[in-house]
Amino acid sequence: MPSKKALVRRPSPRLAEGLVTHLERERVDAGRAVEQWEAYTEALRAHGWETIEVDPADDCPDSVFVEDTVVMYRNVALIARSGAGSRRAETPGVEEAVASLGCSVNWVWEPGTLDGGDVLKVGDTVYVGRGGRTNAAGVQQVRAAFEPLGARVVAVPVAKVLHLKSAVTALPDGTVVGHIPHMDAPSLFPRFLPVPEPSGAHVVLLGGDRLLMASSAPKTAELFADLGYEPVPVDIGEFEKLEGCVTCLSVRLRELYA
Ligand SMILES: NC(=O)NCCC[C@H](N)C(=O)O
């Protein structure tokens, strides 16, 4: 059944210790991060999403990036196993949350690694980034979990950025949008639109023509507005310092079986 619930997770007091891989470390203002997170969750609610807070994981600096812990396909939740060992303690709270919402729960097992940020769904096509956080066994396990449900899994090499969705996401009509300097294999996407800013590659589909985007991508917002979309900008600057983006701060549950 269609649903509009979104998992979110309050930032850890240790957020500033979050991992940084492709960026220079910058000082993170924890208070400002909480304000930005509250505004982000409010933007989801203002557009009809019920936000569900996963129990906080205060000892895990990166736990606010809840997208990385679970991948949803229909009613099935595939609990991730991060390629970053320090992030693995984030999953138990998420398991509980999805199970209590009635999802069927499955797990990525050793030797597989997978971060949810590496998974982009466009209709029944599931693109999986094979990169620093997701290995070949992780890709195989996504195939095993979702292809029997009707998905077609396409593996995409990712070397220049943290996750596949650091480089590409998709518009409501299925057009993949991406920042070409951050992409390794643009030709894998059949309908592709380049965007001028790195964070312009990140959209969360709020419903209808509305796109939640980072306010750090004003030129891309103009481009999307000119295509008939309604950008909804949010400032997530403190999370961007830690390689976060708008997608990674929530997991939308659109097809719960309830
Ligand atoms: N899906 C995402 O874009 N996640 C961002 C994770 C950032 C975090 N500092 C990490 O390196 O794991």
UniProtKB/TrEMBL annotation:
**Superkingdom of the organism of origin:** Bacteria
Where exactly are the transmembrane stretches of this chain? none
The active site of this protein is located at 163 (proton donor), 248 (nucleophile)
> What keywords are assigned to this protein?
Hydrolase
Q: Tell me, what is one Gene Ontology molecular-function annotation carried by this entry?
A: amino acid binding
Q: Which GO terms describe its biological process?
A: arginine metabolic process; citrulline metabolic process; positive regulation of nitric oxide biosynthetic process
Q: What family does this belong to?
A: Belongs to the DDAH family.
| PANTHER family with a match to the protein in the record | DIMETHYLARGININASE, DIMETHYLARGININE DIMETHYLAMINOHYDROLASE
Q: What is this protein called?
A: Dimethylargininase
Q: Which species is the source of this protein?
A: Streptomyces capillispiralis
